[in-house]
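Hi support team,

I submitted a single chain yesterday and got back a structure, but I'm not sure I'm reading the token output correctly. Could someone confirm the output below corresponds to the sequence I sent? I've pasted both exactly as they appear in my results page.

Thanks,
R.
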Amino acid sequence: MNLLSIGASYRTADVAVLERLTIPESSVPELLQRLVAQPYVGEAVVVSTCNRVEVYAAVSGFHGGLGDICNVLSEHSGIPASELAGHLYVHYGEAAVLHSFRVSSGLDSMVVGEAQILGQLRDAYHAATEVDSAGRLLHELMQQALRVGKRAHAETGIDKAGQSVVTAALDVAAEHLGGDLTGHSALVVGAGAMGALSVATLTRSGVGPLRITNRSHERADRLAEAYGATAVPFEQLDSALREVDIVVCATASTEPVLTRDRLERAGKELVVLDLAVPRDVAPDVAGLPGVLIVDIDSLANSRRSNPAAAETAAVEQIVTAEVENFLAWMRGAEIAPTVAALRTRADEVVSSEMRKLISRRPDFTEEQRADVSRTLHRVVQQLLHSPTVRVRQLAAEPGGDQYAALLRELFDLDVPLATHADAVPEIGGRA
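Hi R., thanks for writing in. Yes, this is the structure output for that exact sequence:
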């Protein structure tokens, strides 16, 4: 099996496409099961955030795995496969490892260095674990990706400015409101992960008073209590809009929450930050006098809040080193079945010779037979110990896969291997 990652992000698709691709949390288990039911897909993890939808998979062939995953995404989104292909990036083998580590470290985020992706990756990994769609390869990849992300934030200053999509959006709002958010009132619509991040960031920015509304009033109430804000019943959204300067929308609604009629009824100038996918603001709101809309697309085009080049370079060095560590693990894991088969072959030879000896020497007692058997096993294990340790070391180095093939050839070992009938060299698509 080899690694394949396929996805679409703010780099390759606009919000309209991402809206159709996005996978609600409740639908992730079913989608994972559909993926691993495909002929070429053995393991799968799905990451769905406000600006990316990705599938990480262990596949038995590149073209077959690519086709299987694209078909599932096409069926889920309703986008024809031929149209969807133009929005997807594809990474295979080493390139898939590199991509996953760049994602976890924040290098591939819209706002470089944001830490929110770590929690999103962790949630995606846990979802796959719960339905048993992650096997040995993806367990190792996801755990290592999370470690890489933690290293990037602990050992460099890539996130020293507290960067996130929220802070980038607030930068735009601040510019529109004269450069400072202090004293401006705000409303956060949605009390999920993005809503909570928005509340925390707004609080640090000196915004106030701050209101929070959510369809589940209990969640809004808990979040408001934690940050000294005011919870507003969702039924009072219209009146709340008339009392604020900034609105941050971050719900999981599949339909627009802020319609043109609703914003017209507010009857005032507003800065609306739409951080939801699917979008919370109806498309026909664009151009409404006095209303500035900042959404994922406009943030992607502005590419705001990138950290210093030195910090990015430091994270790139961490990622490069960790990719090599992971590839060494993969090479070592690939030779393990061959080493196990060699030891099994040695045990079979010892057992066969013991049977022959016993047939020739029926006078041996049980104790003598046991002594001879233990001696033979010790001799074989000692002979194999150094070569197997050394071959594991060699296999972990670049080009180490040749040693497993050589052992199989020398000892005529029958080792079940993953089929790669249509495998191709490492491929990295747009990212």
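A quick pointer for reading it: DSSP finds 16 helices and ten strands in the chain. Let us know if anything else looks off.

Best,
Support desk
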